[in-house]
Amino acid sequence: MRETFYEVMRRQGITRRSFLKYCSLTASALGLGPAFAPTIAEAMETKPRIPVLWLHGLECTCCSESFIRSAHPLAKDVVLSMISLDYDDTIMAAAGHEAEAIIEEIIEKYDGNYILAVEGNPPLDEDGMYCIIGGKPFVEQLRKAAEHCKAIISWGSCASWGCVQAARPNPTRATPVHKVPGLADKPIIKVPGCPPIAEVMTAVITYILTFERFPELDRQGRPLMFYSQRIHDKCYRRSHFDAGQFVEHWDDEAARKGYCLYKMGCKGPTTYNACSTVRWNGGLSFPIQAGHGCIGCSEDGFWDKGSFYDRVTDTHQFGIEANADKVGFAAAGTVGAAAAAHLAVTAIKQAQHKGEQDQ
Amino acid sequence: MQTEINSGAVYVYEAPVRVWHWVNALSITLLAITGYLVASPLPSMSGEASDHFLMGYIRFAHFAAAYIFAVGFLGRIYWALVGNAYSRQLFTLPLHRPRFWKELLHEVRWYAFLEKEPKKYVGHNPLAHLFMVAIITVGGFIMLLTGFALYAEQTGLGSWQDSLFGWLIPLLGQSQDVRLWHHWGMWVIVVFVMLHVYVAIREDIVSRQSLISTMISGWRTFKDDRP
């Protein structure tokens, strides 16, 4: 019999009073009413901890780095008390064959009951040889772990969309988790961002463990509670946008006054994430607050959508790098000139025609 | 449609079509100007943010004009169902008729100064007809789809705009892609409007039929009795 969350927490020396405080804090963090605190407490007292297998493919570990900096709830609480993080090669004590044996053990022991958290993605070219874990291509490990899991969490933009390793020309054919051919048909929740916000990651895990289901997702499989609005919608500089007050250069007076970074190419209006509300590092700041525009890191293919510093970004679809405005003005000018030339020829022809008629 | 075209007048554009044309012209002009200013805003305002709402007003004008364009588009579809034969031209292209292609070629040659005399048409000439359908009907529809998908981003999940048009964003990639295509669409329409205005004025003068007055009175008149 696996331990319940509560038993583990008590074993960790946490008092019942602290436990109940934690339950009400979690309830409010998830946007639930006070009535849900006892529900969470009951769930934690009765449900066995859900094992989590955390795999790493092609990635930079920024998701793990973000995750261990969660302040609400503390990553310590999540890792030690809430989830049974049985395998995570970055932060686990075991190494080598011992570590790899744990994967097999979990797959066998908790068949169909563990959560598969994926950080990074598998490259598919050359049969996946660009990412080898424990002597085997990562894609094989991923397929096997997915086959026996209960659900998949796609951590970060790598697992969700592909991110930098999948950016054009994508030399290794890095592929986001939901597009991997032959992957078992399991529910997938995407938590994009490069990295995702720590509190968003822990809140998603807390929700799944507490209610044993995914939170409500949007069309693209992202949790609505954190990805239903754009950075722009809740940006504290929004009033400057509406007023028409923009930073025009990085060192101008408007930049010092904290005006809107729209003209500097801020991707806040096209990026769905919780940065402008949850913020980073325990709610301390986020890119726009630090004076730099959002680069849209939680959006699909953000590396390939033109400059981070342009509002009207270049178009690549026609095989050339072109800005819609440059082409547009050139086309309008050309058409205008052509019309004027056509008009001149028309006038000459008309005059000739008239001359012929008069004769 | 009819073989004999005399110098007598033909009632072509019914009142709703004419009203729609001019309302559409106004809304497209406003949409193009405000849309350009949304993508490339005016120089920054100084003073307190609470004293200004410039970007807000520009965006409001864009959205208001977009609703007028959308309602007009729907109204125009309705009129194509109940109006006269010419009101259906915007939604049909007689590509299967050899005569359409023959006259299309003639029209291209006429604009290339290779034909001495233009033909007479009661409705649109084939070249105009082709461009109207491609730019105003198809182009307008694409602008409505992408525009409302972008509008749905601020009305939010669960709004009717999101339910009807929100699916387009993941289909085209992401929000930035939708903006990009919406912006290209603006330039296509701007170039079309330039050509449309030039050609309408030119044809009104050198062709054998009325053009501009027809879109005001509804009557097409011809300058001669020859076929």
Can you summarize this structure?
The complex is a heterodimer of chains A (359) and B (227). By secondary structure, chain A is α/β, with parallel strands linked by helices.
Net shape of chain B: elongated
Strand ordering within the main sheet of chain A: 2-1-3-6-7
Radius of gyration of chain B: 21 Å
Enumerate how many helices of chain A there are, as a single number. Answer: 14
Structural class of chain A: alpha/beta
**Total number of domains of chain B:** 1
Mean pLDDT over the full residue set of chain A: 87
**Helix proportion range of chain B:** 55-70%
How large a portion of the residues of chain B is in β-strands, by DSSP E?
under 5%
Largest two-chain interface: A-B, 54 and 45 residues
Number of helices of chain B: 8
Terminal CA distance of chain A: 111 Å
Q: Residue share in helices of chain A?
A: 40-55%
Highest CATH level, the class of chain B? Mainly Alpha
- What is the rounded distance between the termini of chain B? 14 Å
* Major sheet size, sense and barrel closure of chain B: 2 strands, antiparallel
Which radius of gyration of chain A do the C-alpha atoms yield?
A: 27 Å
By oligomeric state, this entry counts as: heterodimer
